[in-house]
Amino acid sequence: MESTGASTYGFQAEVKQLLHLMVHSLYSDREIFLRELISNASDANDKLRFEALGKPELMADGGELRIDVDIDKEQRSITVSDNGIGMSRDEVVEHLGTIAHSGTARFLERMSGDQRKDSQLIGQFGVGFYSSFIVADSVEVLTRRAGTAPEEGARWTSDGQGEFSVEPCTKADRGTTVRIRLKQDADEFLDPYRIRGLIRKYSDHIAFPVTMRQEGGEAEGRETVNRAKALWTRPRNEIEHDEYVEFYKHISHDFTEPLAWTHNKVEGKREYTCLLYLPGAAPFDLWNREAPKGVKLYVQRVFITDGATQFLPLYLRFVRGVVDASDLPLNVSREVLQQDPNVAAIKSALTKRVLDMLDRLAKDEPEKYRTFWREFGAVLKEGLAEDPANRERIAELMRFSTTRSAGDEQDRSLDDYLRDAGTDQDVIYYLQSDSLGAARSSPHLEIFDDRGVEVLLMTDRLDEWVMQFLDKYRDKPFRDVARGEIDPKKLGGEQPVETEANKEDRNLLKRVKRVLREQVDEVRFSERLRESAACLVIGEDDIGYQMRELLKAAGQEAPRTVPSLELNARHPLIERMRREGDDTRFELLSRLILDQATLSEGRQLEDPAAFVKRLNSLLVELGAPPES
């Protein structure tokens, strides 16, 4: 091979850090480099087979698609070659000079300092190729894109320390060859028996033959090491647990095990096979709705795309897997698929299978389901708005922190809530807040705690939005405890007796309203407060604070929400205000009461400096320090 015109590039700063982490944190998993390289080679072959559907000439050279693994003990090297799609020089610089194109900095932000835990994040960022440096002193990549001339090849080399070089080269065959020069402590990977064992362990499911030279040193003879049969096409009773796990890692490039999977073959009017997985950890781009990851789509075992988003709703975008259909048109542009009735039918069926899988996980393995909900629960909630047909099923799968939960665990289902509430309670009570701490200390909960009534605590940023689409569950309506007035009679327990003093206090309410004017809609005595002096309550149909923040983040103006101020008639501070004859001091106390109610909601004051001045003024009035 000839080459001229080499160019040297520096890795991104984050890439240097990540490579250092991989080399020093994954020693117990060193063998995974071979799995990742073979998986990448398989993807390259799949992509060539797809492009060849429209351009058969791309397959003209290079023979049948395959993956070759070779060992050179003298050179201390391992080579993994494919005859797939290959890369151009520009693609080499783009793909091998960055990690997963984006998100590397976010990866580093999520590092905890625990090397074993941090190493598990790597699979979420698509960095399989870079695992080569766990065992390599240097890595060389030779590649040529299918359909280009031999002299249009490219060579990429690096020792993983800070720079890489790219130069043109002549490569006779299409595809990519990755050659690894092993470190001195990596002799185990020069043993052909060891490499064969790793191929069978990690890559038996690869749909292309993975070959090695036959034992005995015959230069011409090669043998296929893996079964070379797509795992999803095999009967379920022939597939071991570890095979399912390794196949998940192959299609997702995730180092962690999946929580669950479902494997089904459908025959009849529509014939297809699906193998769907629930990941164990959320990817870094989970909230990027503009670029969701879909399942891998095959038609009659021919790879079509690794991002088919039309077969599952967007709120299930965390699901990974494969769909292999026999009766879909090969013109799989997004518009065609959306209009095809077979796609709609398969989407409905796959959605049901995923929800069934989640239901089984919740019932049979609650610990795993807690992990799922912690990682993906906020995304699943989107289905309440996006999938009316399955709204009840999604509601069954939701989990909440409540006033009876321990710590920050979200472990209470709506069925748990209704079971413990009893038949006399005809409403499901909930409270929305920015944090669990703010929710638990909210004054709105005081009467509910007093009466022993459980309240759901909602702190996700989308909760107010999704609750607009969930008005009832099991025929029980939902009620936000921070909206409207509370009727104590509906909460059970001993009812308060309205005193004569309360009836005579209309003047106090009018005075507070005159001070606060347009800042509050109404001032009234509260039925919900027991210990706090005051709280803010918004109207039944007003836009809440979470929704206002969502609209603001989207660049939209939200109509102003003017809350009502509720006062605790039995609180000493309100008693003090009843007796206050000085208008200036009364105004000071009224504004402090409003500031206090705002802070108790966990929200920011519009003018914190004014609050500090009012508070200082009141403290000064309490009296000067005693003389020494």
Keywords:
628 residues; Heat Shock Protein 90; Ribosomal Protein S5, domain 2; 3 domains; nine-stranded mixed sheet
Output mean pLDDT. Answer: 84
Per the CATH scheme, the topology name of the largest domain is Four Helix Bundle (Hemerythrin (Met), subunit A)
Output the number of helix runs: 22
N-C termini distance: 94 Å
Q: Strand order, main sheet: write it out.
A: 1-6-5-4-7-3-2-8-9
Architecture of the largest domain in CATH? Up-down Bundle
Q: What is the level 1 CATH name of the largest domain?
A: Mainly Alpha
Q: What gross morphology would you assign?
A: elongated
| Structural class category | alpha+beta
CATH superfamily of the largest domain: Heat shock protein 90, C-terminal domain
Overall tally of domains: 3
Q: Pick out the low-confidence regions.
A: 100-104, 121-126, 332-336
Helix content: 25-40%
Strand content: 15-25%
Kindly state the number of beta strands: 22
Radius of gyration: 32 Å
Q: Tell me the major beta sheet.
A: 9 strands, mixed
Explained architecture:
With 628 residues, the protein is α+β, with helices and mostly antiparallel strands. It folds into three domains: 7-227, Histidine kinase-like ATPase, C-terminal domain (Heat Shock Protein 90); 236-377, 2-Layer Sandwich (Ribosomal Protein S5, domain 2), CATH 3.30.230; 399-621, Heat shock protein 90, C-terminal domain (Four Helix Bundle (Hemerythrin (Met), subunit A)). Helices cover 36% and strands 18% of the residues. The chain contains 22 helices and 22 strands. The strands form four sheets. It has a nine-stranded mixed sheet, with helices on one face. A five-stranded mixed sheet has the order 10-11-14-12-13, sandwiched between helices. The longest helix is centred in the middle third of the chain and has 24 residues, at 341-364.
